[in-house]
Protein 1
Amino acid sequence: MEEYHRHCDEVGFSVDEVHNIVKECVDGVLGGEDYNHNKINQWTASIVEQSLTHLVKLGKAYKYIVTCAVVQRSAYGFHTASSCFWDTTSDGTCTVRWENRTMNCIVNVFAVAIVL
Amino acid sequence: MEKRGRGGRVTPSQTPQQTPATPRRDRRASMFEKEAFAQILRERLRESIHDVQYVEPPFDDSIADIGKEWKSALAKLKFANSYRMQPLRKFQANSVESKVQQILKECLKDVKYDDKVFSHLSLELADRILLVVKEFGFHRYKFIVKVLFIQKTGQAINVASRWIWDVAWDSWVAVKHETESFVALALVFALYCE
C-alpha cells in the first residue's frame, strides 16, 4: 500500500497573495472605466473568471468561490454579511472593496481546503 | 550622428534653446516610455481607491500555530480508511432553497430599509440560515452563507460568482426576496469535504 505524504497546506491560506491577485484583476478590468450598463455583465464575468484562473495558478489544493458585486455609485444603502461553517485552520476568506468615481465593486474570495 | 541631427534641425525661426531639447528627448526615448506608462497608469487609477477587508482564519498567531501543530500531528496518526467515495446524502438544493425562502419571508415581512437595523440583521440572518442548513444533516459538508441587502434607489447592481469545486457533490442555492424598499439576496454554497 502506498502512503501518500501530504505536504501541509503551505502556511495555510495566504491572504496577501490573494488580495494582490484580485486587486490586479479588478484594476485591469474596471480601471479608468465609467459605469456602462451594456458592458457590466461582461465586466463582472471577466473579473471573476480572471481572478479564478490566477488563483488556480497558485497551485494549492483548495476549492475557490469568487463572488463579485458591482454597483453603480449613487446614494444607496448596501449591506452584506457572510457566515461560514468550515475548518478555520486551513480555510479562509478575503474581501476586496474597490471604488472609483462611478461605481463600487466588492469581490469576495472563499478558499476551502481539500484534504488529500 | 546626433550632432548632424542637431545641426539639421536648427531653423532660423527657432530659438537656440529649443534645438538641444528635441534631440535630447529622442535620445532618452526608452526612459520616457517607462515614465509614460507609469503616468498613464496613475492617471487611469487616479479616481479609484481600493480597500481590503478580510478575516483571517485565526485571530491570533498563537492560535494558528496550535492549529498547525495539531494538524501535522494528525497527519502522522493513521486513521482507518473509511472507503467512502461519496457523501452519505448528497446536498439537496431544492429543499434548502424552499427553507431559506421561508426564513427570508418571515424575517423580512414588514421591515423597512434602515441602516443600523440592517447591519445587525444581515449578520443575524446569515447565522440563522447557517444553523438551519446545518440542521438538514448533510454530513461532511462545509457551508458558506452570503447575505446581501440592496436598497432600491434606482441604481443598478450586478452580482456574479464563479467557483472551482467538485461538480459531483458540491452545489449552491440563491434565494431572492424583494420588497418595496429593498432587495435581499441569500447565497448558500455547500462543499463536500473529502
Note: Chain A is about 30% helix and 35% strand.
Protein 2
Amino acid sequence: AYRVSNDGKPTKFQPPPKPVIIDRKTQKEESRFLSPEFIPPRGRTDPLKYYIERKDMIQRRKVFNIPEFYVGHVLAVTTADPCASDKSKRFVGICIQRGGKGLGATFVLRNVIEDQGVEICYELYSPRIQAIEVLKLEKRLDENLMYLRDALPEYSTFDVNMRPVPRMAHEEIPVNKLQVRMKPKPWSKRWERPKYNIKGIKFELPEHKMKAAQKWSQPWLEFDMLREYDTSKIEEKIRKELSEELEK
Amino acid sequence: MMPIWTKSGEKHAVTLLKVQDCHVLRYVSKEESGGKTAKLLVGGKNVSPFSKPESAHEIFKEAGVPRKQKVTTFNVTDDAIIKPGTPLYAAHFRPGQFVDVTAKTIGKGFQGVMKRWGFQGQPASHGQTKTHRRPGAISTNKAAKVYRGKKMPGKMGNIYRTSFGLKVWRINTKHDIIYVNGSVPGHTNCLVKVRDSKLPTYKDCNKNPPFPTFFADGDEELPEDLFDEEIFQFTDPSIKFA
C-alpha cells in the first residue's frame, strides 16, 4: 500500500539509503610501506641480532634517502667509482629482483645498452651509492622479472637519459599488466612451469606443452601449514619502531 | 653474520659474538696446575642449577655466581690475575685487536670418506660396479698393514676447532657484542671461546688494551659503540673518491 505523505498525495515507497562501508583499515595498510629487507627470516637466530642490524639500517636511512620502490620500477643509481673520470657512475635500469635481508639487501637493475643486456646487482646499504632516483613508478604482475633475460630485448631497453615521470597522486602505484613476448626456446629457466607462477608472459607455446608443464604443479603447497609465516605482527612492531626512530 | 664496509668502499663479512654473563670462577696457581703459567677458570652463560648435583655447584658457590653452562681455562701471566667473581665484559677487547676464536664445529654425524676427507671417489659410469663414493685402496702391498690415522669414514664434526687471527672491527658496550672478521666455527647461538691471538704477526698489535680487564666501576665511561678507524660509520655521508 502506498504511504500517505503530509500533503495527502500518495508517494512512491523510497527505499532507505544503502549503508556505505568505508574501509579505513585497508586504506591505511596500503599507504604504509615496509621495505622487505626489514622483515626477519624464519630461523633460530637471536632477535637481538636483527634489532642491532635494524639500528644500523635506520641510521643509514637517516643520512641517505632510500626511496620506496618495488620490482618493475625504473631506477637510476649513482655510485662512487675510483676508476671512472668524474669519480661517479650512473646506471639506469628496471628492477628485476629484490633479495637479501638486513644490511646485505640487494636489488638487480637490468638494461640493454647498445644491444648488450647488462644487469648490475647493487647493495641498498652500501656507502658507495650516492643517489637512488625512481624514474618510473609501476608494479608488474610478478615479483621476480628474471624472465626478461629470455624476452625480446625491447622489453628491457630503457633510455639512459630518461626524465623522471611525475607521480600523479600519493596513492596507488599503478600495476602494468603487460604480457611480455619471449624469444624462441631454449630459455634459461622453464618459465612455463607452475613453480615460477609467472603471469606476465604471453606464452605462445602449443597447448600440449602447456599441459605437460602442469605435470610439475604442486597443488598441496598452498595448504602446507609448516610453510606458513605470518609476518603481520612482526611487521606492525617494526613499522612502529621505524616511525619512532625516523622522527627523532 | 653481517656485512661491514670500510672507508675505501670494500665490504667485509663479520660475525657477531655476544658476551653473556661471563664471570671469573677460580684462580689456579702455576704450582697447583703443574703448567708453565697460572690459570684462570672462566664460566659463560647462566643456566638453571637444578639439572646438576650439589657437588657440581661448589666452584660457583665459592665465586658467588649462578651455575654456568661452560667452564674454560685461560693461561694467564702473574700480573693479569683477576679476583674470582668479577664479571667480564665485551669492552675487554678493543677494535683493531686480533683474536682467536675456538668452538665446537657443527656435528655432521657418521660421514663417508668423500665428505669427511675430500676424496675424489670413482666415476659415475663407464662400468663402475657399486663403487662411486668408496675410498679405494687403503694401503700398499709392501706395508702389509694399515697405518694408524688412515683417513676412513667416521663421525665428522662436533670437535673443537680454532680460527686464528680474526680482526675485531667493532664493540657494542651496551649489549656486550664483539664484531669479529670472517666466519667462526660452530652453529648459530653456540658457545665460543675468544682469546688474544697467539700468531707471531699480531704479537705487537694490542695498543693499550684494558689490563687486566675492563672493570665496569663507573670510572671509565665508554661510548655505546667502539669502532675501528677504517670502518665506515653510518652517521657519515656516502663515500666520494677524490
Note: The helical segments of chain A are 24-31, 47-63, 207-213, 232-247.
Protein 3
Amino acid sequence: MASRYDRAITVFSPDGHLFQVEYAQEAVKKGSTAVGIRGTDIVVLGVEKKSVAKLQDERTVRKICALDDHVCMAFAGLTADARAVVNRARVECQSHKLTVEDPVTVEYITRFIAALKQKYTQSNGRRPFGISALIVGFDDDGIPRLYQTDPSGTYHAWKANAIGRSAKTVREFLEKNYTEDAIANDNEAVKLAIRALLEVVQSGGKNIQLAIIRRNQPLKMFSAKEIELQVTEIEKEKEEAEKKKSKKIA
Amino acid sequence: MALQDVCKWQAPDTQGLSPHLPQAGGWAVPRGCDPQTFLQIHGPRLAHGTTTLAFRFRHGVIAAADTRSSCGNYVACPASRKVIPVHQHLLGTTSGTSADCATWYRVLQRELRLRALREGQLPSVASAAKLLSAMMSHYRGLDLCVATALCGWDRSGPALFYVYSDGTRLQGDIFSVGSGSPYAYGVLDRGYRYDMTTQEAYALARCAVAHATHRDAYSGGSVDLFHVRESGWEYVSRNDAWVLYSELQKLPEPEKEEEEEASEAHPEPATPTELAKVENSPRGLEPGDSRMPAETETL
C-alpha cells in the first residue's frame, strides 16, 4: 500500500501520511547524534563526531555551524542538505539586518528554516530536506533559546533535546538529569551535554565536538584538549559517586 | 523543480515585502519616453512649504508642525494635519508633497502591522525608518518628495530618525524639516537640552514653530504639538500661530543667572509656566490637555 503513495511528495496516502516526509525522518535517524542544552546563561551544542578515514583531514568535518554572531545550529542527517539550509539561513540573517537594522531573533531564523523545509514538502519535483536541526542562541533581551526543527517543517522550543542516531536514549538521559542544579552554572551545563553524549558515543571524548554561546559573546568551539579536561572531570565525579555508593552499602 | 522550470512559474514570496506595490518604473508614460525626463517636462508642479520639527529628550519625543498647506502662492488648506500617527508609539512629521507623505505612511503602517503579527512585537523605530527609506529608494529620480521625521518610543527609549525620499536616513536628537526649518533650528539650537522638563519642551517647540511661521511665507495657520511618551503618543495642543507669536513677544526679559550677555535672551526656558498660562487656543484647548480624539486609526 505504501509503495503507491510514496513516489511523489505532494500526494497524501489514504490514512493521511506524507511518506516522503517520514522517510526523510528515517534518514535523520541515521545521522550522528547531536544534543542541545539551554542553561541559564549559556547554550550548549554537542555532536558525535563520526570516525574519519585515515587520510581524511578531520578539521573539514563541521557539524556545528554559526548562522550569525549570536545564533548557531547543529544538525543530524544528510550533510549536503544541511549545507544548503545553513547557506540560506546565513543569507537570511544578513538580509534581516539589512532590511530591519536588528539582528534576527532565534525564533525568527528557526521559523525561516522551518518555512523553507515546509516549502520543500509541498512543491512538486522536490524532495524534503533530510535533516533535523537544533538552533541555539541568545536574543537581544538576553534570554537563551533552543529550538528544534524536523524535515516536515515543524519547530518547537526545548529546554534540552537530542536528534540523530541515539536520540531516544539521550533524551531519556536528559529527562532524568536536566535539573535546576544541573544547569546551575555554565560549567555544569557543559558537563551535562558531555555526559549525555558519553551515554551513546563510543571511545569517549575523542569523538565529541562541543560549542557554546554565552550571553553577549560569540560562538566558542571547544578544542579537543578542553573536551578531554571535561571528560576526565566527569569520570572523576563518577568514580567518587561510585565510591560513596559502595561505602554506604558496605 | 523541473516542472516549475518548464512552466516558468514563480512561487509568491510571502516572506518579503508585501506584494501589490507597483514596480518602480512601472508608470504610464508614452512609449519611448524616459519617466524621469517626462516628469520633469510634463509633470505637475508640486509645491512644498512647511515647518515641522521633532526633538527627543528625557521624557520622550516632541513633534510639532504648522498647519498651512500651500500650493504656490495659494493657501490650499490653513488647518491641515502634518503629523501623522503610524501606530501607538510612532508618529511621523511630514514635509514635501502631502499626497506622497500620506500614501507612504499608509504603506509603512501596513508593513509594520504585518511584521508585528509575524514577529509578535512591533519593529523598532530604527527598523521602521530603514523600511521606509528602503521602500522609497526604489522610486529615486521619479520626483517623490517625502521629508519626514519618525518620532517614537521603542525598547531603546525615545528614538528619532529623519528619512528623505532619496533614501537618506539619519538618526539625531533634533530635526526640523521644511521651508521654515532654518528659523526653527535657530530657536531649537538655542533652547534645547536633553534634560528639559515636559513643559519646557512644549514651550520650546511652540516657540520654534511660531518664529518660523512669522518669517516663512509658506508656514502659518496653527501650531500642532504632539508628544510621544512611553505609554504612546498624545496630541497636546493646537494653537493659532499668530496669537502664539504675539504672546511670545509680550513676555518680559528673563533674568539670566549664568550667562554674561543679557541681549537677545530667549524667553521660554526661564518662564515656562508663564508661557503655558498665556497661550490660549481659539477653541479653548488647554495645553497639556489629555488626548484629543484620534481621527486616524491606531494600530
Note: The beta strands of chain A are 34-38, 42-48, 64-68, 71-77, 131-138, 144-149, 155-157, 160-163, 208-214, 220-221.
Protein 4
Amino acid sequence: MLADDMACNARNEYPAQVFNNENHKLNLYGDNVEVDYRGYEVTVENFLRVLTGRHENAVPRSKRLLSDEGSHILLYMTGHGGDEFLKFQDAEELQSHDLADAVKQMKEKRRFKELMIMVDTCQAATLFNQLQSPGVLAIGSSLKGENSYSHHLDSDIGVSVVDRFTYYTLAFFERLNIYDNASLNSLFRSYDPKLLMSTAYYRTDLYQPHLVEVPVTNFFGSVMETIHTNSAYKAFSSKTSNSKINSEMPLNQLSEDDELQKANIPNDELKTEKQKCPYTQMRVDLQEKLEKLENVDTVVNLSIAVMFIVVMVSSSLL
Amino acid sequence: ASAVASSNSGEPMEGTSGSLNPTTDTSGIMPEFDPKTMRSSKPGLKRLFITTSVLFSFLLGVPFLWKSVEIYRSPLPFHDIDSLSDQIESTPLRFPCNFHAVFVGFRSTDADNLRSQIQDGINQLTHLSPQCGSCSFSLSVTIQNPAEQCSETLGHNPSSCSYRCGMIKSNDFGVGLDDTVDESLNDVFSGCSANSRKMYSVVVVNKENANGEDEVKAVVGKRRHAWIVGSGLEERNDDMVSRVSEIFVKMFMNGGRDEDSIHGEFMPVGSDGRIVLSFSLLNSNPRDWVYDWDFQRIDDALLAPVTKALAPIANISVESQVLYHTPKSSFSSWDEQLQSYIFRTSDLPFFVNSNEWHLDTSAGASGRSKILQFVVYIPSGSECPLLLQLPNGEISKTNGFISPMWGGVIVWNPGNCDKDSESPIRNTISPQDIEQIVEIFLGQFRQLFGFKSEAIYTSVLGTYKILPSERGFTEWELDVLSRKHTCFNLHSCSTTLSSLSKLVRSLPRMIIKDEIGEQVKYSLKAAKLAQSNASLGGYSSSASSSREARSLAENAFFHPSIMSVSYFSYEHCFAVYSPFFLPVVAHVVLAALREWKRYRQEKAKYLTWLTRKKTA
C-alpha cells in the first residue's frame, strides 16, 4: 500500500524512479515490484479490510491477504504519526484501538500464526499500545514523546530519501547471506539509540518464542516451510496394459454414487424431455433441416425475391 | 376586576411574581391585605398552558427522533449459535462403523473369545478417548474352519449383509496379483457398504504350509478390506489379534497416519468449499530447450478420477499454464561423483522464486477458494541434471517437495542434457514421463491432505502393503477424509458463528443486513443436517453439508458491511445531536417548571386571600 505520489511527481528529477539512498544504486521501482493499493485506494478502511479480509466479492486475489492459520505476516508501516495514531494521506488517521481490534479479529479467525508489526514514525511505540492478541511481536522506532528522524537528504532530488530506523534495518540485512541463521534478537540489538536519535522499543509480551531462537527468515525473505516428498504414488505402474493416456477411460465404480452416474447420461434424457414439447421439437427439426442445406445463400436470396414480389403484388392490389 | 386580572396574566413575567399592581385592586377594603402573600383574582392558566404545550410538543417528537436514528439490525439467532458451539465442544462427533474380522482356516470355534480379544486390542490403541471423527464401532467375528463350517458372533449393530460361509477360500490367496485378490474379496463384501453403515473387513488366512514359506504378508486393499496371509497363524494368536486391531485402528480409523486428527495445516480446502489445482510447467531457460505438455489429456485421463473422488470434500477445478524464463532463486553445486548438480534440503525453503514465477494469476478462482500450485520445474542447460540430495546423503527418488497449504514442486530433468547449439527445439513431454510426473504429483497431493505419499505402512508388528488406487485415495482413505473434514468444518463453522455473534453484540450501532441473517440461519441448518447425517453414517453427505455450513458461516462473517470503523457508538450519536437539542430543551423544561411553580404560588396567595375574606 503506497500513497505513491512521489515517483511520478512533477518535481521528481528522476521520473518513475524512487531511490532509497543518495548514491542512487537501487531503484525501488525496478523490476518485479508489485504495489497492490496505490493513490486514492490507500485509506484506513481499505487497510482494515485487507487485515480482516472483509472485501467485496469482486475484489481480485492480488488485493487480498491470502493467509491462513500457519502464516507469518510482516506488517511494516511508516509515515507521520503521533500518540496512538498514524496518518494516512494527510487526511485520515489510523487509531491504535482500530489496529488492535483488527488484529483481534484476525486472531479469532485464525488468519495468522505469527504477526510482526514494524512501525517507523514519530512516537511509534504508542501505535501498538492496545494490542492484546497472542502471537504478535511489535517494534517501533521511537517511544512516546520522541521523534523519529530521517537519515540523509538527497540534494539532487531535494528530499530525504530514507528514515534512520529503516536505513539501519536494511543495513542489517545487507550484511547477511542466504545461509546465515541470524535471529530476531540480533536484529533488535543492532539498533543503536545514538545513531537512531530515538529509542527503538519492542514488545514481546504477546509473543511466546524466545527472540534468540527465532530466525529473521520467519518474517523476512519470503521463505517457505517445505517437506520432502518421499515417494511417488504408483497408481499407474501396476497396470499391465498400455499407458493410461492412450487407452480408454475406464468406468468408475463408486458404490454410493449411483445418483451421480445417472446424471452422467445427459443426452438421452434431455432429448426425451424435448420431445414432449412440440414447439421446441419443430424448431429443432427446422434447425436440422437448415443445417443440412448446402447452399443457404441461394435459399435466402430466393426468399428475399419472393418477399419482394409479394409486396409488389399486395401493394398494387390495394 | 376580571379584565384587570386577565391583562395582568397576559403579560410575560420574568420570574418575579407577585409584582401585581396593587392600586387597581379593590383591596382597600381589607386593611391586612398583603400583596406578597395574597391576590384577589384567580391566577390564569394561560402561561402554564403555553409553556407546558411547548414542552409537550418536544416530548411528542422524541419517539420520531428515536425512530429516525434507529439502525436496522437483522435478528441473529444468538441462542442457537451458542447452543451449537456448546454441543460441538462437549460431544465430539462420532461416526458409526462396522468392523468384521474373518478368520479362514482356523480350527478353533471360540469366536466370542477372539472378539473380546480384538475389542481389547482396539480399545488399547484408541486410548478410550473419543476424538472427533473417530468410529463408534461394532465388531463381529467369523471363524471358518478348513472344512468350511463357520462360527460367528455379531456385534451390537450387525450390518444387514452377512458373510456366507465358504465364500472365501484359502486357495485364492498367495497366488496371483494382489489386485486380483482385492477384486475377488470385493465381490464377497461388496453389498455391505451400500447402506448407511460402512463395513470394514479384515480376512486372516491360515494356509496349510504351502511352499514352506513362513512369512506373513499383510495387504490393505483399495476398497474397505484387508487381508493377512501366512502359515502357522493359529499358534501366533496374540500376534494376529494385535495386527488385526492395528489394521482396524491405524488404517481404517486413522487413515494410515500415526496421529488421530489432522491439523489445520493439512486442510487445504478453501472457505467456500473449492480448491483450484493450478499446474505450471516452468521452462527456466527457454534458450536451452522448451518443453510443452498435452495437459488436456492429462486432465481427462489422469486427474478426472481424482477430482471426482474428492467431490464430497471439495469442489475441485483444474487449470494449467506454461511459463518461460523462470529461474529458481536458490543455488546448486556440481558434484563430480554423481555427475550432476546438487541442491539440498536446506535450499528448499528458498527454491520458489516468487519474484519471477508468476504463479497466482488465476482469474477463475474467487477470493476465498484455495489455490494449490503444482510446479514442474525444468532446469536450464547450465544446471542439468539437477538432483535433490537428502540430509543422509541419498538422492531423492522424486526430486520433489511440498509446502503445506501452498502446493508442490517437482524438478524434472530432460532425458538428454546436451544442448543443441542451434535454436532450441520444442519438445513435448512423453506420455511415460507424464505418468511418472503425475504419480509424484499424486504423492504430493496426498501429502497436502495429511496422508503419506508412499503406499506402505510400517509398525513394530510388521509392514502393511497398501494397494494404490488410480483415484489417488483408496475408499477407506476417502472415508477418513470425509470424517475428518466433517469435524473440521463443523468446528470451524461454530467458532466463526460465535465470533460473529460476539462481534455483533459488541457493536450495538452496526447495521446487520438481512443477507447476513439468512446466511447464519442456513449455516445453522446445514450444520444440524451434517450432524444428523454423521450419526446415521452417511459420510459423503455429512461432508458436503458441513462444507456448506462452513462456507455460509464464512460468508456471513466476512460480509463487507461488517466494518467497525464505519459505525459509531452511542456516545457519538449523543455527541452529534446534543448541541442541537440540549440548549433548547433545557430552556423549555426550565420555563415549564418555573411557570408551574409560579402558578402554585399564585394559587396559594389567592387561597389565603379567600380565607381572609371569609374570616373577615
Note: The longest strand of chain B covers residues 94-104.
